[in-house]
Write a structure and sequence with these properties.
By secondary structure, this protein is an alpha/beta fold. It is about 35% helix and about 20% strand. Helix 2 crosses helix 3. It is globular, with a radius of gyration of 15 Å.
Length: about 160
């Protein structure tokens, strides 16, 4: 196992992680336009993190043409979170098969967390991206899963012990 998960020019801590994007089950499905996050990680005794990483997002406040690009980026990220959650759930109930790493252990009770780490985001840009992402998540998903959603920059991810 690598010492880190390298994504978008950042090194993520791999403890108790499943690299769903690199898994055979995802590789077999991605031709069907299924999207997924970089990896899923259990942190602590309750947190199930779905982690997506990007080097940057377009800032809709800088140029008018960035508004549409920013919205498309956030829609794609939202889809990755939803597809990854569905694929992970299908694996856990036995509809799909995947080999989890030996050290990937799920606690009995989980709190679902979607995390987008954008390496070069300012706190203002992160807040704007989080607001847009929350507005696009379907109400059924928010009601059933009650996910927490965070958009962090590299410094914030390091403070949360996600990156090194």
């Amino acid at each position: 196992m690598n010492d880190y998960i390298e994504e978008s020019d950042m090194n993520f801590i791999p403890d108790n992680s499943f690299r769903i994007e690199k898994s055979k089950v995802y590789d077999d499905l991605k031709h069907s336009k299924i999207k997924t996050v970089e990896f899923i990680r259990v942190k602590g005794d309750r947190l199930l993190l779905f982690v997506e990483a990007k080097p940057r997002l377009h800032d809709p406040d800088k140029l008018q043409r960035n508004v549409k690009i920013f919205e498309e980026e956030i829609i794609e990220i939202k889809d990755k979170f939803i597809h990854a959650l569905n694929l992970f759930s299908a694996i856990k109930v036995g509809v799909k098969e995947a080999d989890f790493p030996d050290d990937f252990v799920l606690p009995k009770r989980l709190s679902l967390t979607f995390i987008l780490v954008v390496k070069k985001n300012s706190e203002r840009e992160s807040l704007k991206a989080r607001e847009k992402l929350m507005s696009l998540l379907p109400n059924y998903l928010k009601t059933i899963w009650e996910p927490k959603v965070f958009v962090l920059n590299y410094t914030q991810a390091k403070e949360q012990k996600l990156t090194v």
